[in-house]
UniProtKB/TrEMBL annotation:
Organism (species): Sphingomonas jinjuensis
InterPro entries given in the database record: GD_AH_C, GD_AH_second, SAF, SAF_UxaA/GarD, UxaA_altronate/galactarate_dh
GO terms of biological process kind: D-galacturonate catabolic process
Gene3D superfamilies named among the record's database cross-references: 2.30.130.110
Name of the molecule in the record: Altronate hydrolase
């Protein structure tokens, strides 16, 4: 028998937990038409123009009269989002923190005090022209080093030349921040020689303390760039001769992300990840949330959690700045959700955002950082980046995340520079795609949040200690850089 879940007593809709045909009785209502899992049914009558509430907040407006038991979706509900907004700082009192978990993982402690979850050597090309060269170097070096390191990985991209100004600066900032990552014992930067993203300028953006772990290869100046690159990686291998040692939960840096969401993502996987985020923050750790366009409609919830008026103003700036970015390109700020999101039951960007922000838990927002910047403080940080899975996950890694919790209702095989833990919102996805999924958050509906939280914490700590994610087993490791501005 099908059932539906009401999240807040004020809600006008309930979310279906299973498919149900027309005429079925669900939540004491008779369905007027078939309603699929993750989709919404009306709990009460609504008039045209009425706001429609889910999560206790408006997710849009009714475009016509809706009767109880009707399917509520894009045929009768539309976004109410417009352009940039005016916001007020109305801080909420933080909820009392729980006692920190005395949990540990086995990580790699670096000289600067940070703890990595992997002990790898990364190869970063400055420009797309040497992307395949970087891959050849990494492949051959990995075979030679064997299990002396956790891996040798080339992270290729098509950028680094024909870029100007802010666009070039973004590419350089991402690469410089990746070069500082604690999961990389050492980094080989492979340049061509004539590109806009000159190695010397890139090196200037890398702190002095990190320089001993960096090697540079100029391909145009090398008689055999592959052999020279391998030789430099062999030098870096000595830096990877460190053991795993115990580290506290508070030494984990967690990035949180959702992609291919469905109507259950905001009910199961995202709030579950929010509880893990809070556990890390309570232990003194760091959590990064991003996807700025996917908080439109829910931004006030984060603004009210700003730790200071200055942080509030920074959130307003990054949100309105991103909205203006859409407007300047002639696009509506509500141009979301994706076709897959819609098929999974998400109707408007407000609905998607109200579900997505739950990944950030309930901790105060301690800081806001720009795209390509690295973390500066403990607690929860908001990072400027778009919603695109690959671009935003790369930005999370560059900011310093040593693991990413990635929720999904539709599924995706993508993996990124750091261990990417795929968390399904429903049993069906987890059972159909075990080669993609690391954890089934559908367990929330069976066993409750407390049991699912304990199980997910255990999985995260095991992965931080070296257990491979599905993406790592599949060799899914890549980056994507946010392209802005003109191309020469």
């Amino acid at each position: 028998m099908a059932d539906a879940l009401t999240i807040d007593a004020r809600d006008d809709v309930a979310t279906m937990l299973d498919d149900a045909p027309a005429g079925a009785t669900v939540a004491d209502l008779t369905l007027a038409e078939p309603v699929a899992r993750g989709h919404k049914l009306a709990r009460r009558a609504l008039a045209a123009g009425d706001p429609i509430l889910k999560f206790g907040y408006p997710i849009g407006r009714a475009t016509r009269a809706i009767q109880p038991g009707e399917h509520v979706h894009s045929h009768n509900c539309a976004t109410a989002l417009g352009g940039t907004g005016s916001y007020r700082y109305t801080p909420v009192t933080p909820e009392p923190a729980r006692a920190p978990l005395a949990a540990t993982f086995m990580g790699y402690r670096r000289g600067d005090g940070r703890v990595g979850t992997r002990n790898e050597i990364w190869v970063l090309p400055t420009v797309g022209c040497v992307a395949r060269t970087a891959e050849r170097i990494a492949t051959r070096a990995a075979a030679m080093l064997g299990d002396r390191v956790d891996g040798v990985h080339a992270f290729t991209h098509p950028h680094g030349c024909s870029q100007l100004g802010h666009d070039l600066g973004g590419t350089r900032a991402i690469l410089a921040s990746l070069a500082c990552h604690p999961n990389a014992a050492g980094v080989l930067i492979v340049g061509l020689g004539c590109e806009e993203n000159q190695v010397a300028a890139l090196l200037d953006t890398i702190p002095e303390w990190r320089r001993p772990a960096i090697r540079i290869l100029a391909a145009q100046a090398s008689a055999d760039e592959v052999e020279d690159g391998i030789a430099k990686i062999m030098e870096l291998a000595a830096l990877a001769d460190v053991p795993r040692t115990p580290a506290s939960l508070g030494e984990l840096v967690l990035g949180v992300k959702c992609g291919g969401s469905d109507g259950l993502s905001g009910l199961t996987a995202n709030p579950l990840v929010g509880r893990i985020s809070d556990r890390v923050a309570e232990a003194g750790g760091r959590v990064i949330v991003t996807e700025i366009p996917e908080i439109f409609g829910a931004e006030q919830l984060l603004m009210d959690r700003a730790a200071t008026p200055q942080v509030f103003e920074s959130i307003v700036g990054v949100v309105n700045g991103f909205k203006q970015y859409f407007i300047d390109h002639g696009e509506p700020v509500s141009e979301n959700p994706s076709p897959g999101n819609v098929a999974g039951g998400i109707t408007t960007l407000e609905e998607k955002s109200l579900g997505a922000v739950q990944k950030a838990g309930r901790a105060p927002v301690a800081d806001v950082i720009a795209y390509g910047e690295r973390l500066r403080t403990d607690g929860l940080t908001l990072l400027e980046a778009p919603g695109n899975d690959a671009v935003s996950s790369t930005a999370l890694a560059a900011a310093g995340a040593t693991a990413i919790l990635f929720t999904t209702g539709r599924g995706t095989p993508l993996g990124f520079p750091v261990p990417t833990v795929k968390i399904a919102s429903n049993h069906d996805l987890a059972q159909r795609k075990p080669n993609w999924i690391d954890f089934d958050a559908g367990a929330v509906l069976d066993d409750g949040f407390d049991a699912a939280e304990a199980a997910l914490i255990d999985r995260v700590l095991a992965i931080a200690s070296g257990q491979e994610t599905a993406a790592e087993r599949n060799g899914e490791r890549e980056i994507a850089i946010w392209k802005r501005g003109v191309t020469l």
